[in-house]
Structure formats: structure tokens, C-alpha cells
């Protein structure tokens, strides 16, 4: 979540810059609307994000694009917001807007604003946010690899990398959200195996929160993967996935596993 927030903050700079100068232009503090620098910044940030995503594709085999479901949801969000603004603009223009000066309500300005907002939302949902999430998931993989690197006396390594809420902290909407937990499993054997893990998640008071079985996973020798359960969404991109959710942060855990040669 941290990497996503940092990425979104960076991408918001051109938009904030443009709005700031637009307000000054509207108030007469500027002679011209400054849009070139924000646009150039946004283009450079977009190109940089694409380069990062290509690098992560080559190193971690992360797909460039999101799943079909995530694409449909993202496009729907952009479309609904744009349509609502245009409908409101049309209603105002046909009613009260007839008696309002352009300094108060200018339909063309609203249409341009809607177009700019749609482009910005598209870049945010399909470039900025995925880039931050991919970087965060790559960091989780690296942390899991570091934690399991020197393990030699276990057939399989199980490690909890993160237990956090996918939201902004100290907000009303965040308080009721569950914690998303990312467990990783690594096959330390020199042969391909099918493995299933039972996880018992405990809170800070050492109280049991959840007991859950993983899916039967096929792992190649030395392969490291996110531990998948029935709560792991197959409709989500790999960087949006988690093992399972709990009401509170996982402080510790116990696990049992069984494995076999592939049939």
C-alpha cells in the first residue's frame, strides 16, 4: 500500500500544478493558462512507469496488463464519472445556466475539464496504481526470498510477508476493512511437489483468528509463490492478490503441511 500511495502522490503533482495555475488564471493573477509543463510531466511519468513495468515483466514475469475484470471495472469507473459530470453540465446549461455568465458557468470549460479528468483517471487506474502495486509485490517477493534463502533443514518454507489493510489509515472507511495477508511458500526440495498447507493465524494476544487450508499447489524445485487459498481471487492480477483476510493483524502463526509427488 505504501508504494501505491507514493506513486499516486507523484502522479498527482501535474494535476495539482495545473489546477493551481488554472485558479490563478481564473482570478486574473496569470495572463496565460500554464498547461505545457504539467502535461510534459505527466507524459514523462507515464513513460517512466511503462519502463518500470517492462522491467518487472522481464524480471518477475508480471503481465503488462490487468485482468479483463479489473479493466472493465476501471473503464466503468472512468465512464460513469465522465457521464455524470456531462449530464449535470447539460442540465445546468439547459436550465439555470441560461441566466448565468460564462465566468460562473461555461459549458465548454466543463467539457474540457471532463476530458482532462477522464484522461487523468485512466492514467491513474491503468498506469500509476498498477505500477505502485507491482513494485510493492516485487518488494514482497524479494523479502520472502531473503527470508527463505538460507533455509536448508525444511522441505518447504512458509513466510508471512505482510498483514495490512488496503486503505488509508485513520479514515472511517478503513476501520471496518479486514487485513489482507500475504504468505509465501518455497519448495526447498530438489524435485517438483504438490503441497497443501494449513495455516492457524493468531493475533497479538495469541488468540486464534482463523484456520484455513491452502489450495493444492504444484511447486517446481526452489520455486517461490504466493500461498493461495479459497480466498485468493483468480480474477485479480497477481500483484493484487493475497492469501486470505483476517479481522486483525496477524502477530504470529502456526502451520502444518503435507506434500506428495505429482501424479
Describe this structure in words.
Keywords: Membrane, Transmembrane, Transmembrane helix. The chain crosses the membrane at residues 37-57, 69-92, 112-129. This protein is an alpha+beta fold and 263 residues long. It has 5 helices and 8 strands; from the N terminus they run H-H-H-H-E-H-E-E-E-E-E-E-E. It has helices at residues 2-26, 36-60, 68-94, 107-148, 172-175, and strands at residues 156-164, 179-187, 193-202, 208-213, 217-219, 224-226, 244-246, 252-260. A hairpin with a 5-residue loop joins strand 3 and strand 4. The model has no long low-confidence stretch (mean pLDDT 89).
Question: Topology of this structure?
Answer:
Blueprint: H1 2-26, H2 36-60, H3 68-94, H4 107-148, E1 156-164, H5 172-175, E2 179-187, E3 193-202, E4 208-213, E5 217-219, E6 224-226, E7 244-246, E8 252-260
Antiparallel strand pairs: 1-2, 2-6, 2-7, 3-4, 3-5, 3-8
Transmembrane segments: 37-57, 69-92, 112-129
Keywords: Membrane, Transmembrane, Transmembrane helix
Amino acid at each position: 500500500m505504501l508504494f501505491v500511495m507514493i506513486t499516486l502522490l507523484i502522479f498527482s503533482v501535474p494535476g495539482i500544478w495545473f489546477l493551481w495555475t488554472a485558479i490563478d488564471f481564473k482570478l486574473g493573477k496569470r495572463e496565460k493558462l500554464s498547461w505545457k509543463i504539467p502535461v510534459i510531466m505527466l507524459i514523462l511519468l507515464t513513460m517512466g512507469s511503462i519502463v518500470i513495468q517492462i522491467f518487472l515483466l522481464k524480471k518477475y514475469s508480471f503481465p503488462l496488463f490487468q485482468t479483463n475484470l479489473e479493466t472493465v471495472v476501471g473503464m466503468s469507473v472512468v465512464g460513469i464519472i465522465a457521464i455524470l459530470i456531462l449530464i449535470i453540465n447539460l442540465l445546468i446549461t439547459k436550465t439555470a445556466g441560461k441566466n448565468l455568465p460564462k465566468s460562473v458557468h461555461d459549458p465548454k470549460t466543463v467539457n474540457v475539464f471532463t476530458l482532462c479528468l477522464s484522461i487523468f483517471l485512466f492514467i491513474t487506474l491503468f498506469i500509476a496504481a498498477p505500477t505502485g502495486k507491482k513494485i510493492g509485490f516485487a518488494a514482497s517477493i524479494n523479502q520472502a526470498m531473503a527470508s527463505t534463502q538460507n533455509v536448508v533443514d525444511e522441505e518447504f518454507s512458509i513466510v508471512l510477508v505482510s498483514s495490512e489493510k488496503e486503505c488509508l489509515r485513520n479514515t472511517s472507511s478503513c476501520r471496518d476493512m479486514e487485513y489482507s495477508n500475504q504468505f509465501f511458500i518455497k519448495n526447498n526440495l530438489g524435485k517438483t511437489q504438490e503441497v497443501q498447507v494449513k495455516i492457524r493465524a493468531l493475533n497479538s494476544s495469541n488468540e486464534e483468528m482463523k484456520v484455513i487450508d491452502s489450495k493444492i499447489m504444484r511447486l517446481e524445485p526452489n520455486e517461490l509463490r504466493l500461498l493461495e487459498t479459497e480466498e485468493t481471487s483468480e480474477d485479480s492480477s497477481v500483484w493484487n492478490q493475497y492469501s486470505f483476510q483476517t479481522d486483525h493483524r496477524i502477530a504470529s502463526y502456526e502451520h502444518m503441511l503435507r506434500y506428495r509427488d505429482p501424479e
